[in-house]
Amino acid sequence: DKVLEIKNLNMTYHSLDGETKALDNISLDIYRGEIVVLVGPSGCGKSTLLSIIAGLLTPSSGNIIVNKSNDSINDTGYMFQKDNLFEWRTIRDNTLIGLEIQNKLTEKRKEFVENLLDTYGLSDFKDSYPSQLSGGMRQRAALIRTLATKPDFLLLDEPFSALDYQTRLVISDEIGQILKKEGKTALMVTHDIAEAMFT
Ligand code: ADP
Ligand code: ADP
């Protein structure tokens, strides 16, 4: 069961400085339950690839099929370098925000999120504000916010790079475990080999 199918993808940017070939004939398949990590130096095209998968950017040529069985972009969840938590909302209210936006905030789903917060070490912080949490805990809250909408497929863009080195090692391992435990399919891009060690 393929969640993502990319065939012969090319992306060339045109600007006043001339042309930049950001992606050169990329092909990639990701199957359900896989956690795939792409590692490469800054400027190698990682953000370009994620933007195309997310539907934010149109490739110059090539094919891309996301979640063929149900091609709703709502089934894709994102986690970025910055956790983008709202400082004026509690952790609980932050983790419910995606559900509010998608109009899926049922009692049952609230309970699902409460359980995620309990399972992943945030039970004592539900009523706290983001500034009261460590960087690692904030990233965990951001992941729970993403998991709350039950996405089939997660895109992670250098999700740990804002953390200090020790926290990065701990939290990258934790988040790898969470994704596996929840049976998620994920594509992570990073320039940092230490972030890639989480599987
Ligand atoms: P990464 O995420 O791996 O750092 P990017 O996808 O951001 O790589 O960039 C790949 C290449 O495309 C780089 O050479 C970058 O300078 C170039 N690039 C990215 N975005 C643009 C843009 N909007 N216009 C022109 N060139 C771009
Ligand atoms: P992580 O690496 O997951 O971010 P830390 O090493 O920062 O976790 O924190 C370990 C534990 O210390 C947390 O699970 C939490 O119980 C406690 N803790 C961390 N930050 C705070 C805080 N700002 N206030 C109270 N307890 C905290």
TrEMBL record:
InterPro entries: AAA+_ATPase (IPR003593), ABC_SmlMolc_Importer (IPR050093), ABC_transporter-like_ATP-bd (IPR003439), ABC_transporter-like_CS (IPR017871), P-loop_NTPase (IPR027417). SUPFAM superfamilies: P-loop containing nucleoside triphosphate hydrolases (SSF52540). Residues 4-199 form the ABC transporter domain. It comes from the Bacteria. It holds the Pfam family ABC_tran. SMART domains: AAA. One of its GO terms (molecular function) is ATP binding. Keywords: ATP-binding, Nucleotide-binding, Transport. This is ABC transporter ATP-binding protein. It comes from Senegalia massiliensis. The lineage of its organism: Bacteria, Bacillati, Bacillota, Clostridia, Eubacteriales.
